[in-house]
Write a structure and sequence with these properties.
- The chain has one domain (12-91).
- The relative contact order is 0.04.
- The protein has 97 residues and is an all-alpha fold.
- The two termini are 55 Å apart.
- Helix 1 crosses helix 2 (29-73).
- The chain has helices at 12-25, 29-73, 83-91.
- It contains 3 helices and no strands.
Amino acid sequence: MVKKKVAVAISDLILEGVDEYAALAGVSRSSVIQEAAADYLTRHKSRAEREHYLAGANAAFEDMLRFADERAKDPACADEPSSLEILRSLRGTSHAR
């Protein structure tokens, strides 16, 4: 993998911590900073993916609530069996779990 040099400004306190860790671990300052950046990106990507999933799940739940509300308001649906009742009849059982 091709690496590029970049210049970043960080505080003396953070740089001292990076240098101390690099010395203890026997690695370069660049390695410590690269690993820290990779860890940061991984954690934030996971958070973004989780938030995206939750937004989709919430939207699906809201759709289900709207559908249930519309179904309850429609008199033509009153005599129709629920999805659960249909599935139970297809399985050949009517007991609740």
